[in-house]
Amino acid sequence: xxxxxxxxxxxxxxxxxRRAATVAGAEAxxxxxxxxxxxxxxxxxxPGGFSYGDYLRAGAISRFAPVMETIIKKAxxxxxVLGICNGFQVLCESHLLPGALIKNHHxxxxxxxxxxxxxxxxxxxxxxxDANHEITIVLKNQDGSYVADEPTLDRLExxxxxxxxxxxxxxxxxxxxxxxxxxxxxxxxxxxxxxxxCVETLTGPSTDGLGFFTSVLKAVVAS
Length: 223
Description:
Pathway: Purine metabolism; IMP biosynthesis via de novo pathway; 5-amino-1-(5-phospho-D-ribosyl)imidazole from N(2)-formyl-N(1)-(5-phospho-D-ribosyl)glycinamide: step 1/2
Subunit structure: Part of the FGAM synthase complex composed of 1 PurL, 1 PurQ and 2 PurS subunits.
Largest sheet: 9 strands, mixed
Main location: cytoplasm
EC number: 6.3.5.3, 3.5.1.2
Distance between the termini: 13 Å
Strand order of the largest sheet: 2-1-3-4-11-10-9-6-7
Order of helices and strands: EHEEHEHEEEEHEEEH
Active site: 85 (nucleophile), 194, 196
């Protein structure tokens, strides 16, 4: 199985995401932002970083990259897509997910080991976790505060589309402690913390992030 990882100008965690895909047992495929061809991948990861330097607004320019035209179309057809940090921002800018990511409430970059609770284990990217499974993975961002209007937040809560929630002190001011969400179909997930940094015992606070990548392999087999 092939997991494609997109590189935008300013991507920082694309190599890490490809490594995580390999550790999970997939073939990692490097995808270029300027190439609309997905080269037959079974799933796509939009990695963390500062695409286009976060000029204009985080993720706002990457949303118009040629590769995103294809990803938006294929996501509508069921292709599993995971956006991590900057990738989450791109998904919101692309309207594949609702809401937006804005500056952290304390206006500072944050980097820490962050406990989370997996609240939706029915997505293509979270099925290897138990419901309400508590994990610890790396969080690093400066535009990580998830915001949306009250009707949207109520809908996300009511339809079970909150994938992960911060535990303990809210690190960035995200509304309702939201760390990640999914679309209704469950194939598109946006996550602010970085599971790709927590897949091997040598690095990271845990291997708790590996489940995101093993989950999607099972989802592809089942589809």
